[in-house]
């Protein structure tokens, strides 16, 4: 039985990914910022798919959180085959008008949190033949969006982490890739009014917002043996937004 650790699994892309992996028979270690949401996710998936799912909560910007998650994976399953580094936070703001605390938080969660999680999981991942990692970046980080420069920078760091880690960990048998979602209908878009949503849809070649499941399916593919010769890639899942 394969084991996957998914951060940011209580909602959105992380929850959809955990659902897809449970459906495929993975046992799960799920992380969420708050205890109630991630516990509910683990209990629901375990009941629905008959897998073992354990949950832990904490701020991913704190390295002790990812250390605890990896420890939980080892104590429960003695292995880790797949890692999905998805926990993140979003904030928009024009340059010159973004609070220092917002800048610090974006980098603490999105960039440092991703690095802490990968670093703390490496030792356990390298014990599993064919282990794979997928990080959630963003098309904002790969192509840029006005009004989101700081968020984009924090997500560009995630893409850079994925590429460098792929080179470093490939010789140790671990593949590392990233997905770069476009505009996905999760709570990160809740601040958009109808006009804003229409504008995003109009800019997307496929004529709709993405669903969390659209991204989850690509993550599941990258984790699978079907992607066994794919590493160091940042795969856009954006409906043609960046064409």
From TrEMBL:
Task: Write the signal peptide boundaries.
Answer: none
Q: Which domain of life is it from?
A: Bacteria
InterPro entries for this protein: KR_dom, NAD(P)-bd_dom_sf, Sc_DH/Rdtase_CS, SDR_fam
Kindly give the Pfam families that the UniProt entry links to this protein: adh_short_C2
Q: Does the keyword Ribonucleoprotein apply?
A: no
Q: Name one GO molecular function term.
A: oxidoreductase activity
- What family is this protein classified in? Belongs to the short-chain dehydrogenases/reductases (SDR) family.
Q: Give the protein name, as stated in the record.
A: Putative short-chain dehydrogenase
Lineage here is: Bacteria, Bacillati, Actinomycetota, Actinomycetes, Micromonosporales
């Amino acid at each position: 039985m394969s084991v996957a650790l998914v951060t940011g699994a209580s909602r959105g892309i992380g929850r959809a990914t955990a659902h897809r992996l449970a459906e495929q028979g993975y046992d799960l270690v799920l992380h969420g910022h708050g205890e109630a949401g991630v516990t509910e996710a683990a209990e629901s998936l375990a009941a629905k798919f008959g897998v073992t799912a354990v949950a832990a909560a904490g701020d991913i910007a704190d390295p002790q959180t990812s250390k605890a998650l990896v420890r939980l994976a080892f104590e429960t399953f003695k292995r880790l085959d797949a890692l999905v580094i998805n926990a993140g936070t979003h904030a928009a703001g024009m340059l010159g008008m973004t609070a220092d605390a917002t800048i610090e938080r974006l980098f603490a969660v999105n960039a440092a949190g991703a690095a802490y999680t990968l670093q703390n999981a490496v030792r356990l991942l390298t014990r599993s033949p064919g282990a794979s990692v997928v990080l959630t970046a963003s098309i904002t980080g790969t192509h840029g969006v006005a009004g989101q420069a700081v968020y984009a920078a924090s997500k560009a760091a995630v893409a850079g982490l994925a590429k460098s880690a792929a080179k470093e960990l490939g010789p140790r048998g671990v593949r590392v890739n990233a997905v770069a979602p476009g505009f996905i209908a999760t709570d990160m878009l809740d601040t958009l009014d109808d006009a804003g949503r229409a504008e995003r849809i109009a800019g997307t070649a496929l004529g709709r917002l993405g669903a969390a499941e659209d991204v989850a399916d690509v993550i599941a593919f990258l984790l699978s043996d079907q992607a066994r010769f794919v590493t160091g890639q940042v795969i856009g899942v954006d409906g043609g937004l960046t064409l």
